[in-house]
Amino acid sequence: MSARSATWRRADSRATRFDPISLIAYAAGGLVILGTCALTLGVMS
To answer: Is Membrane set as a keyword in this record (predicted)?
Structure first.
């Protein structure tokens, strides 16, 4: 997991212009995290 994020960070530093693919990847990661939090809260309540 950490190796993958390091790879993403290296790719981002290499890309100087706006990259929609990495933006979509980050958005998907954020949605997964939000969904996991929502499921956890739903199970606990």
So the answer is: yes
Could you report the per-residue pLDDT of 21-33, keeping only the tens digit for each?
Answer: 888 989 999 999 9
Pairwise CA distance, residues 26 & 18, whole Å: 13
Structure tokens at 12: 């981002």
pTM attached to this predicted model? 0.48
- Helices 2-14/20-44 angle, 10° precision: 150
What is the rounded CA–CA span in Å between residue 6 and residue 9? 5
What percent of the chain is modeled with pLDDT above 70?
A: 60
